[in-house]
Amino acid sequence: MSRAGVAFLVVTAIFVIGGNCQLCGPDETFVDCPSGCGEQTCQSRPLPPDANCPAVCRPSCICNYGLTRREHGGPCVQQC
User: Boundaries of each TIL domain copy (predicted)?
Assistant: First the structure.
């Protein structure tokens, strides 16, 4: 196999393996299947413990434990 062929395979493998990665902001973690109820924000009402959330997986970045998103698409904060 030529050097160009090997280089192509290496680049393709890196792209495929790294293609599942998502860059998250500070204080965020990428999750493959977060809660179907969506991420809570400072403006949203707290969900009851027995909330019936849909089982829909939408990979996304969520705030790290103990933090809340200020508003949809906003930064993660310790206090609202």
Answer: 24-79
